[in-house]
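Sample log: Glutathione S-transferase domain-containing protein.
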Amino acid sequence: MKLVIGDKFNSSWSMRPWVLLKHFGIPFEEALIRLGQPDTKSKILEVSPSGKVPCLVTDAGDAVWESLAIAETIAERYPEHAMWPRDAAARAHARSVSAEMHAGFADLRQNMPMEITTHAPGTGATPEVLANIARIEAIWAECLAKSGGPFLFGEFGIADAMYAPVVMRFNTYAPALSATSLEYGKRITALPAVAAWIDGAREAAQ
């Protein structure tokens, strides 16, 4: 398989499936397309019909785009890994919070973009963003309380991968967070697959 991604320091959607594949030790070829270049759009359109990254190209040459669709495809192909919880109720909950991340939190995305190599505490904290953050914290607290942690549904899975870029934003902008959220963020940041992504972002910025 080949995963086509954007720049690691700011392509939050690319981060999600990349971290998922890395964490579960699934082999793939990484193809990075620099964003914001004159030929970016044409290069992406060669592989992704949406004109956006990430895009997974299967061994058969089929394209799967959008992070959540890629995650679902990986989960189907590697059922030996519990990327979604095995329990049906927990699985439905995980899918719900993942879809909410995929479709929501527009104010957070706009005002606190993922910029891994930047440190800007306090920037972008509009009332709308703070409301987004409060909702995210409520999701994390509920999931962790139900599962017992250390990740949202016990072991690391798709839901955690979906929220990993949010942790990167919190690391950059340092909004006031609960102890539960701070500890969860530390566990995500320290995860080897996430640490590898961060290292890649820092190397590219040098």
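Observation: The domain at 88-194 is CATH 1.20.1050.10 (Glutathione S-transferase Yfyf (Class Pi); Chain A, domain 2).
Observation: The beta strands are 2-5, 29-32, 55-57, 63-65.
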